[in-house]
């Protein structure tokens, strides 16, 4: 399912006696309860949008697996989607699809989490599904044989990542002799030996109410929700749990790992063992990591003085232990040794002399502010509670906040001295490899034929059928206020009071391919790289210190952003505008960024990903299409600072700019502050053209880009399509795409390629519509010997969409997905900001999602069939493969 090695999320928990209590924690209404069977429950009311997140967290993961079977918990997670007594896998897939939101799971070392993000109206359905799956799971050997193929594709995908290979070796070295020595993913050999009976035993042992924690966050009635939880889960018996695995960590022995990478740049890592999430020193470790990772710290300084393309520090924590990682990035062909030496010196100084107390103070403020920002999304709020309670054993996020606030510089320095011992460091150097030349080919992708029987309609259980009986366009919770300032800048304000923060999202509509003179390719990247060097009135350190003082996150450029506590919104807007309108653009910095960009470009031109995208673009577009323009190192090195300044003057215009403000702010106040900060910005001359022109239909083709580091092939089957973002046909294509690729297991492509034939792990379909052109694409990953079979099934499914109307069940399900996604698009500040920004830049009304919902509601199956017959060309796909040569 969904692996997230560095994601902040997992479970939730608390332990109170029978009954419930309601407390105000962090400004939210929080209801806590423990059922008689031991199930711990937290309900956090969040009225940002009519959306709810449910997270069922079982306190068992890869730590608890049998010896020699590292992926057992992961495999059980997969099988939980294959059905339970009273709920078949097809019904489960159809229910998840109808809900329209996120329905997935992830396995970590100590927790396996199952979650829904769905419209609040579907809470009862989500809880009933979670209840049935706690009671039991179908572990049919035949189903496991099918799922084994999919999970092995996931293993292949991750083993195709050099970064994952390094991470696996790092864990083995850092945590030898403990459960942390392996990732939760599992291995192909172990899966081949795993039986359905073993998986059922794991489920029956660990999936118990007294080993589970349920968190519910969203726009719900807490009392009614708790009553429903008791009704659904109260009758499930508790179990006697086995002993937990012991952790006896051995001293880490210094080692250097060298690996190739398919990235366009190389990486240097220095890894150290650090305190885990449940340690009393965790908050200190968090502050230490953030202080060392500060833009004002010496590791980041490697980027600004030209030592490295990037430098930083990050932490990856598990309950019993964690990792601290310093990282430095070098260009292809560059020497990693000077970067490694500087990183070692920086950490040695931190160990011997301590960390700048000003950086410690700033890191504490930032970490506390970040907890407040978590409230700005429904699932983010649930994850914050999950992380605090399940992973850290804390009472609430406020407990973590208090621990962070209590950290002292002395504690940080003591931990640095204890941690950064070179005798216990794991060093890794990942060196970029060239891809090899792309090859055109006819040896794959079309010989096989599959007689896939028509899908049978799924009969939903009565309780689900009733929940989904009525389809309607949901009422938007957004009430944005839009202004056009005298200089042409568009400002949109969406007030929200869920947290004491404000987030700002901005974009200037530019297009280097259409606006940069010939021979100046790469100028936009160089210009963007100069903004972090400060403003005309403040150097980069002074500017970053000003941001740190108000706990703000800021970025400038053609896309810019600000996240700041609402009390400091005025100061934040001034700093953002100063950076955006008065960048320093110093000559010394230009030389550094120019060299770095040229190095990145040199590596990129030989990287598999770039060659894959370029090859696909050349196959789809005319030879002289501006979208095929790309920089070379020679182009970048021929640039001058004056050319970068000219490009800035030409392209940075207020009349091509939209700013969206979301958060605790009055619209009139926001307008006053934005106009005050950006009002003197003026545009000259007519507006430039920034949209690509229409293109003719492409011819079919095939190409392969070698990638020696990959075990699995990545495949795109794409074509140009005459559907733009203003074309009414886009609604029918989008609806049909949900039938093909939406709704998890319930989509045609997933059923056909994954369920029936075990060819792929995931498959997706997309329409990328621009103002004058569009691209239609099906993407999947599979083993080299399965590319042809999977590709043939894709073509067959597209033709079927043209030859016959989709079924009533599929049409209804697809409509339900798209209609229910409308409120989900309003369930976080980021989603709100991105949606309003995109609509404004495309010249659409701000209620366009409601308009789209009405179109989806009224579409018929023949209209979907007609759109696919008119616009999609199954025999004109370009099949692009990145990885090993396909077989067969």
Structural class computed from helices and strand pairing: alpha+beta
The CATH homologous superfamily of the largest domain corresponds to Metalloenzyme, LuxS/M16 peptidase-like
Percent of residues in helical segments?
A: 40-55%
For this structure, the CATH topology of the largest domain is Cytochrome Bc1 Complex, Chain A, domain 1
Distance between the termini: 28 Å
> Which runs of at least 5 residues are low in confidence (pLDDT < 50)?
1-27, 441-455
The number of distinct β-strands equals 26
Going by CATH, the architecture of the largest domain would be 2-Layer Sandwich
Tally the helices: what do you get? Answer: 32
How would you write the strand order of the largest sheet? 1-2-3-9-4-8-7
Mean pLDDT, to the nearest integer, reads 90
Give the radius of gyration: 27 Å
Pfam families: Peptidase_M16, Peptidase_M16_C
Domain Peptidase M16 N-terminal: 40-186
Keywords: Signal
Signal peptide: 1-23
Describe this structure in a few short sentences.
The two termini are 28 Å apart.
Could you list some keywords that capture this structure?
888 residues, alpha+beta, Cytochrome Bc1 Complex, Chain A, domain 1, seven-stranded mixed sheet, disordered N terminus, Metalloenz_LuxS/M16, signal, Insulinase family protein, Peptidase_M16_C
């Amino acid at each position: 399912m969904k692996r997230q090695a560095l994601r902040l999320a997992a479970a939730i928990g608390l332990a109170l006696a029978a009954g419930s209590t309601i407390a105000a924690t962090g400004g939210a209404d929080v209801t806590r309860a423990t059922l008689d069977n031991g199930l711990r429950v937290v309900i956090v009311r969040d009225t940002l949008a009519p959306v709810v997140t449910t997270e069922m967290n079982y306190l068992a993961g890869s730590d608890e697996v049998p010896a020699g079977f590292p992926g057992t918990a992961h495999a059980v997670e997969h099988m939980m989607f294959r059905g339970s007594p009273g709920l078949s896998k097809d019904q489960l897939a159809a229910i998840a699809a109808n809900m329209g939101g996120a329905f997935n799971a992830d396995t970590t070392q100590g927790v396996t989490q199952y979650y829904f993000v769905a419209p609040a109206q579907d809470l009862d359905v989500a809880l009933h599904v979670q209840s049935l799956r706690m009671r039991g799971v179908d572990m049919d050997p035949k189903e496991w044989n099918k799922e084994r193929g999919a999970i092995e594709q996931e293993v292949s995908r991750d083993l195709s990542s050099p970064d994952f290979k390094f991470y696996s070796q790092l864990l083995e070295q850092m945590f030898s002799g403990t459960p942390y020595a392996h990732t939760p993913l599992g291995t192909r050999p172990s899966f081949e030996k795993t039986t359905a009976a073993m998986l059922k035993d794991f489920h029956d042992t660990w999936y118990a109410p007294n080993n589970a924690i349920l968190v519910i966050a969203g726009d719900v009635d807490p009392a009614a929700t708790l009553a429903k939880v008791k009704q659904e889960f109260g009758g499930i018996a508790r179990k006697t749990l086995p002993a937990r695995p012991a952790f006896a960590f051995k001293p880490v022995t210094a080692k250097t790992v060298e690996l190739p990478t398919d990235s366009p740049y190389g990486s240097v890592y220095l890894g150290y063992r650090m305190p885990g999430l449940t340690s009393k020193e965790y908050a200190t470790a968090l502050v230490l990591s953030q202080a060392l990772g500060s833009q004002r710290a010496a590791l980041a300084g490697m980027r600004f003085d030209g030592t490295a393309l990037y430098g930083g520090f990050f932490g990856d924590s598990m309950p019993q232990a964690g990792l601290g990682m310093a990282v430095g990035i070098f260009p292809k062909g560059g020497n990693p040794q000077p970067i490694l030496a500087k990183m070692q010196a920086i950490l040695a100084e931190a160990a011997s002399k301590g960390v700048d107390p000003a950086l410690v103070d700033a890191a504490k403020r930032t970490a506390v502010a970040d907890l407040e920002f978590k409230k700005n999304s429904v699932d983010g709020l649930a994850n914050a509670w999950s992380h605090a309670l399940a992973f850290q054993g804390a009472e609430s996020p406020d407990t973590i906040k208090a621990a962070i606030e209590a950290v002292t510089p002395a504690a940080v320095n003591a931990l640095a001295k204890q941690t950064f011992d070179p005798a216990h460091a794991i060093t890794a150097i990942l060196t970029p490899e060239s891809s090899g030349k792309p090859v055109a080919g006819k040896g794959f992708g079309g010989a096989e034929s599959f007689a896939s029987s028509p899908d049978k309609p799924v009969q939903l259980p009565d309780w689900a059928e009733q929940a989904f009986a009525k389809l309607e366009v949901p009422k938007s919770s957004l009430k944005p206020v839009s202004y056009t300032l005298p200089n042409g800048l568009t400002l949109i304000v969406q007030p929200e009071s869920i947290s004491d923060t404000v987030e700002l999202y901005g974009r200037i509509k530019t297009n280097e391919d259409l606006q940069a003179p010939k021979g100046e390719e790469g100028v936009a990247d160089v210009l963007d790289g100069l903004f972090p060097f400060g403003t005309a009135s403040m150097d980069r350190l002074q500017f970053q210190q000003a941001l740190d003082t108000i706990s703000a996150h800021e970025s400038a450029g053609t896309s810019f952003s600000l996240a700041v506590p609402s009390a400091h919104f005025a100061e934040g807007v001034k700093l953002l505008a100063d950076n955006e309108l008065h960048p320093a653009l110093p000559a010394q910095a230009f030389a550094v960024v120019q060299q770095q960009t040229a190095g990145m470009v040199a590596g990129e031109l030989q990287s598999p990903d770039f060659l894959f995208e370029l090859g696909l673009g050349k196959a789809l577009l005319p030879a002289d299409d501006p979208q095929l323009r790309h920089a070379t190192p020679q182009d970048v090195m021929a640039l001058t600072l004056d050319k970068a300044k000219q490009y800035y003057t030409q392209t940075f215009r207020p009349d091509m700019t939209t700013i969206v403000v979301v958060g605790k702010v009055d619209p009139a106040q926001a307008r006053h502050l934005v106009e005050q900060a950006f009002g003197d910005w003026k545009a000259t001359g007519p507006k430039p053209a920034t949209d690509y022109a229409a293109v003719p239909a492409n011819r079919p083709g095939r190409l392969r880009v070698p990638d020696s580091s990959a075990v699995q092939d990545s495949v795109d089957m794409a074509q140009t399509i005459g559907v733009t973002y203003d074309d009414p046909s886009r609604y029918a294509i989008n609806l049909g795409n949900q039938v093909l690729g939406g709704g998890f297991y319930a989509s045609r492509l997933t059923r056909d390629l994954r369920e029936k034939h075990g060819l792929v792990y995931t498959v997706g379909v997309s329409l990328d519509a621009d103002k004058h052109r569009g691209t239609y694409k099906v993407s999947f990953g599979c083993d080299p010997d399965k590319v042809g079979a999977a590709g043939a099934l894709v073509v067959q499914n597209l033709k079927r969409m043209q030859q016959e109307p989709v079924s009533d069940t599929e049409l209804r399900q697809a409509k339900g997905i798209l209609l229910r996604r409308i409120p989900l698009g309003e369930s976080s500040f980021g989603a709100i900001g991105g949606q309003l920004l995109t609509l404004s830049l495309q010249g659409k009304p701000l209620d366009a999602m409601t308009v789209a919902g009405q179109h989806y509601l009224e579409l018929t199956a023949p209209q979907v069939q007609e759109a696919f017959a008119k616009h999609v060309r199954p025999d004109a796909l370009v099949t692009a493969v990145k990885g090993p040569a396909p077989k067969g």
